């Protein structure tokens, strides 16, 4: 979930891409939300790479995680220092080959990177929504993405791919719109948060809400709750790593010093790393968006929502072919959670493949360069495009 | 097309599978057999394999495969979910072979089981004349590092069928060459001269 990990550009890039926008639910219409509230108008920021074939049968929808955005690959401007967050996977000849597929990525509602969220202007007050923004769910995010797909006049998706909170959207899509989805790759994800995952999110939210600048969510005209958001991000980063990866990366190494200095600064490298991540995050992310999206992830429960508690029942209307992938060192969404969904899919006689990738980098592994993941995704996409 | 680009033992198994059937491959490795069956006999395939690198090879071929333990993974399938469950050259490596056969007979209408023949003359001669635990081309490991913990002969499997309660529908005793690409059927004293046995089994 730590999009924009420092990565060196690998292979050919798609080149220049453009951030596009689609607005719907304009008056008198509104988007009805699961919380029974409604909102409108709703804008979705999105990016497309590759070319839609005449049969419109080569569509891949990439779903981003908690803090991601629609900018999955390439550069907005030749002067940009970094490409989109999944440039290692999406591009010509890459795992998701833009020479073959028409790849779409849209920013989720509730976010702060172009789609309608708490930092957008509420047309009724002409001020930012702040905490007047209605609560949203993974289902609402998917409903908004569906509106975008309809607008693009696409009625069949070859494959949905997403990790973490993006993987939740993948699963929601398959259950909600079973006839539209040919195949799906839920990566390092879960059908519902464990108490451990909710606990980490709650501590992160409390850090934001305890920041005096938060001001019940109405901070847009003054100082922002930067300290709270940075701490929230630091907590997140602990969950994205693993005991092993932290040991290998930092151990007990000291930062710019050879001995303990007996002060409260960042003495250990791991402290310095977390502070750096926190400080980078406040430049690009909105604290209220963090609150809303983590809540949506905590609410997500496929079995409760679609199966009266039974995951097997929840998948009963699904028709997609699945490739489920987990990582050995992911302690946020451990392998047993992926196996649970695989089990429910098998009991519904769904065509499912499962692979647990041996990786020491914890939950974040899905965003790091990996030949394993490239080969899995390339092979799976080839087989589903041959089937159609 | 004949399955002549397959290993000889897999070629025989492939020839027994009805076109369009539903097949579960237990310990399916890199998925060569399932790939051939999917392409040439239009079967609906599922594989189970424990090794990550082999699972990746299967998925690259377009084979549906689950990474996991064969006994555990079979539990989730309903009764008679498959026409065939294939256990190729794995039976001698499982801790509880009778449980495995029971599970195969639950999830599939028929089973295919193949294994290296421990009754082969080379095995017998090695033990008789050198006094060492046999190491052969088909069972190439030393006693201390072998995964083959349940070696058996063709006759043992016949007897096993009565004990466990399944029917042998077809059998093939074969002798393969070095590459295992080619081979021949052994009809004269198979328990002494065949390197591998392959059995199609059904419920009693």
Would you mind describing this structure in some detail?
The complex is a heterodimer of chains A (388) and B (204). Chain A has 388 residues and is α/β, with parallel strands linked by helices. Chain A has a domain at 20-192 and 301-387: 3-Layer(aba) Sandwich (Rossmann fold). Chain A is 34% helix and 15% strand. Chain A contains eleven helices and 14 strands. In chain A, strands 1-4-8-5-11-12-13-14 form an eight-stranded mixed beta sheet, with helices on both faces. A two-stranded antiparallel sheet of chain A has the order 2-3. In chain A, strands 6-7 form a two-stranded parallel sheet. In chain A, β11 (159-163), α2 and β12 (183-187) form a beta-alpha-beta unit. In chain A, α1 (138-151) crosses α2, α3 packs antiparallel against α7 and α4 crosses α6 (269-284). Chain A is globular. The mean pLDDT of chain A is 95. Chain B is α/β, with parallel strands linked by helices and 204 residues long. Chain B is built from eight helices and eight strands. The radius of gyration of chain B is 17 Å and the shape is globular. The termini of chain B are far apart. The mean pLDDT of chain B is 94. At the A-B interface, α10, β14 and α11 of A face α3 and β3 of B.
Task: Summarize, please.
By secondary structure, chain A is α/β, with parallel strands linked by helices. Chain A has helices at residues 138-151, 165-176, 195-209, 226-240, 243-249, 269-284, 287-299, 302-307, 311-314, 335-347, 371-387; strands at residues 20-24, 31-32, 38-39, 42-49, 59-63, 90-91, 96-97, 102-106, 121-122, 127-128, 159-163, 183-187, 321-327, 352-357.
């Amino acid at each position: 979930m730590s999009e924009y990990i420092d990565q060196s550009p690998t292979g050919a890039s798609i080149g220049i891409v453009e951030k596009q926008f689609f607005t719907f639910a304009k008056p008198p219409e509104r988007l009805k939300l699961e919380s029974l509230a409604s909102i409108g108008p709703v804008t979705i920021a999105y990016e497309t790479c590759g070319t839609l074939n005449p049969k419109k049968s080569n569509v891949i929808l990439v779903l981003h995680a908690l803090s991601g955005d629609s900018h999955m690959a390439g550069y907005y401007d030749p002067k940009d220092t970094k490409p989109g967050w999944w440039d290692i996977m999406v591009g010509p000849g890459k795992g998701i080959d833009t020479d073959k597929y028409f790849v779409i990525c849209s920013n989720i509602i509730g976010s702060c990177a172009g789609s309608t969220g708490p930092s957008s202007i509420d047309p009724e007050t002409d001020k930012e929504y702040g905490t007047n923004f209605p609560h949203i769910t993974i289902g609402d995010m998917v409903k908004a993405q569906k509106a975008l797909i309809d607008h693009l006049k696409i009625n069949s998706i070859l494959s949905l791919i997403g990790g973490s909170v993006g993987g939740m959207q993948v699963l929601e899509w398959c259950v909600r719109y079973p006839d539209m989805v040919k195949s799906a790759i839920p990566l390092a994800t879960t059908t519902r948060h464990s108490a451990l995952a909710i606990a980490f999110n709650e501590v992160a939210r409390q850090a934001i809400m305890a920041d005096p600048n938060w001001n019940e969510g109405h901070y847009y005209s003054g100082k922002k709750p930067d300290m709270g958001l940075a701490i929230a991000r630091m907590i997140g980063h602990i969950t994205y790593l693993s005991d092993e990866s932290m040991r290998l990366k930092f151990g007990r190494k000291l930062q710019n010093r050879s001995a303990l200095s007996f002060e409260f600064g960042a003495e250990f490298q791991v402290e310095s790393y977390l502070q750096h991540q926190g400080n980078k995050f406040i430049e690009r992310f909105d604290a209220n968006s963090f609150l809303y999206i983590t809540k949506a992830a905590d609410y997500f429960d496929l079995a409760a929502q679609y199966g009266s508690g039974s995951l097997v029942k929840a998948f009963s209307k699904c028709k997609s072919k699945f490739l489920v992938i987990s990582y050995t060192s992911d302690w946020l969404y451990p392998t047993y959670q992926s196996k649970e969904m695989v089990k429910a899919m098998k009991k519904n006689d769904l065509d499912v493949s499962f692979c647990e990738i041996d990786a020491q980098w914890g939950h974040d592994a899905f965003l790091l360069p990996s030949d394993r993941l490239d080969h899995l995704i390339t092979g799976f996409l080839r087989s589903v495009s041959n089937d159609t | 097309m004949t399955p002549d680009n397959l290993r000889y033992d897999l070629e025989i198994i492939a020839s027994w599978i009805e076109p369009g059937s539903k097949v579960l491959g237990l310990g399916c490795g890199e998925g060569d057999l399932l790939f051939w069956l999917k392409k040439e006999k239009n079967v609906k395939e599922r594989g189970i394999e424990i090794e990550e690198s082999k699972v990746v090879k299967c998925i690259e071929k377009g084979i549906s495969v689950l990474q996991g333990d064969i006994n555990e993974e079979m539990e989730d399938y309903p009764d008679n979910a498959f026409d065939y469950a294939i256990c190729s050259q794995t039976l001698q490596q499982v801790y509880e072979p009778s449980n495995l056969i029971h599970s195969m007979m639950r999830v599939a209408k028929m089973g295919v089981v193949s294994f290296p023949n421990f009754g082969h003359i080379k095995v017998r001669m090695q033990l008789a004349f050198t006094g060492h635990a046999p190491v052969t081309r088909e069972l190439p490991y030393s006693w201390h590092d072998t995964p083959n913990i349940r070696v058996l002969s063709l006759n043992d499997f016949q007897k096993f069928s009565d004990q466990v309660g399944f029917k042998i529908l077809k059998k093939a005793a074969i002798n393969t060459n070095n590459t295992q690409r080619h081979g021949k059927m052994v009809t004269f004293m198979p328990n002494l001269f065949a390197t591998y046995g392959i059995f199609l089994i059904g419920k009693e």
